[in-house]
Amino acid sequence: MNERGVVAGRVDLLRELEPAVARQLDRHLESARDWFPHQYVPWEVARNYDGPLAGEPWRAEQSPLAPAVRDALLVNLLTEDNLPSYHHEIASRFGRESAWGTWVHRWTAEEGRHSEALRSYLHVVRGLDPVVLERARMAHVSAGYDSGQPTLAHALAYVTVQELATREAHRNAGQACAEPHGVRLMSRIAADENLHMIFYRSICADALDVAPDQVTAAFADVICGFRMPGHGIPGFHGRAARIAAAGIYDLAMHHENVVTPLLRTLRIMERGGLGPVGQEAVDRLGRHLETLSGKARRVRELRARLADRRRAGEGA
Fold this sequence. Notes:
It is built from twelve helices and no strands. By secondary structure, the protein is an all-alpha fold. The chain is globular.
């Protein structure tokens, strides 16, 4: 494999997909809407914290957010904070030349708004402990990030799944905020992630036509082993469990709102004319979907039982 992720004997996707990238970049620039992080932050409620400005220290009772929402927004923000590592990943994979490079830099510029706006919002509304947040940011960003994707096809499959999962995570966290400024901000960030997902999904549709076996196998590898880019955040597994228990993002949502729609839109499971590698990948995906469906069903059943218990408790 060379430094751009092109495997000898396989289709040179970087070169073959360049016209598609140029088309999708033009479409994206026509669709994207400028927005300004400072306009989404309720600055009038801000007050000084303890420290050099001798303000008031953070206390949990000051937060307008439920504990699970605080977990979700911390994970979402720290994920966005690792943008330098993500830029390095895609710039190394896609290059900095031609339409690929233009997209890399445009994507990075748009993503940079997310952490800026979300951190400002959380500080202003005292949504979560800023000391805990900063220590976790230092640990997470200092560790860097490596997606571990071995080829360009894998990288494209991963960012397509990841952008849709991130859209869902942001949108659901916003809906759970029960605080109007947070709802508005997270909806705005989710809209960006949706446009990014559409870009990558469109490129993957072209890639499947150019190299169906190669790209189908990459999707099987990515979906069967998928992990969110924030999995290295300190305390991630405990926070993820609380986020799932609150119905903000769980395995059932991942199955129903991320994996299934992507496979359906890209027609991966019904694609004909595949060779042995592609067909094996489809079979592997089918088995994984069956397992994922069963786990998602159990998650829904558990959530329903918990809701019944809450209602019974409220009625007692």
